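Sharing in case it's useful to others searching the archive later.

Someone asked me privately for the predicted structure of AEC family transporter, so I'm posting the question and my answer publicly. Question first, with the sequence:
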Amino acid sequence: MPSYWQLLLLILPVFALIGVGAIMRRVRWLTSEADASLLKLVVNFLYPCLIFENVLGNAALRQPGNLLLAPLIGFATIAMGIYLSYYAARAIGLKQGEGLRTFAFSTGIYNYGYIALPLMVALFGPESVGVLLVHNVGCEAAIWTVGILMLAGLSLREGWRKLVNAPVFALFAAVLGNTMDLGRFIPDVAFNVIHMSAACAIPLGLMLIGATLMEYFQRPREMFDARVTLASSVLRLGVLPVLFLMLAKWLPVSDDLKRVIIVQAAMPAGILPLVIAKHYGGHSLTAVRVVIGTTVLGVFLIPLWLRLGLAWVM
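And my answer, the predicted structure tokens:
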């Protein structure tokens, strides 16, 4: 089993790329005007290529349990986190209009993509990564239904529309192709293009995260609030990891899915709530405090939870 320091060394490049993105924004090599177009490139092309590379030809995704239980667990863990965070926010005195719903939304959503993916690759290889990508569909479904209903009262019908996007389409196509073993009919040239494009998805996504956070780093006093930062950190990096690891220990699921749950247990809050909270009229500063607080602490706690999870569950 990897030691704490070995695991820390695995995650440092992830956070280093976030730092690179922040520096690029600071020196204006990566401007805010470029964010929208680069994000579209990552979400609509590079990330779907990453999905194809890791799902097509993946034997672990020919097991019905992984295809059915992985997204169900993704949905359930996000929903559980949001509702537990809502009651915790009320307990610490947050009220509607002062960040109550945004706290629940931001703390309940873990970073299931850009930090989790490179860790899965480094620790477990491509088969487990494919299971992670299927799991993440359930996370997306929870965000755009339970999450948006919590944050802004958007109708269920409007929320489900957000699931019609390029990554989900790519996932369904790749799962179908994997089930029917269609990968052998794809030319090597096409696979090489997919591979090179997939290799760009995570580094560029992480740098975009750093660039997005940079505007908040320029106002350091606003980024910390005792109630919000401490409560979200205790929940996201203390209480919820224990619940996740209990699921991984006792649910009758495959080893690949157990590994996904262990990695997700260690994750800080996701970056996506920063954008969504702003768009839907949430309390943006609360989202910033949750994301930055749990991410900074996550640098030191992610290796600890990974080590504990692997020792107890596997």
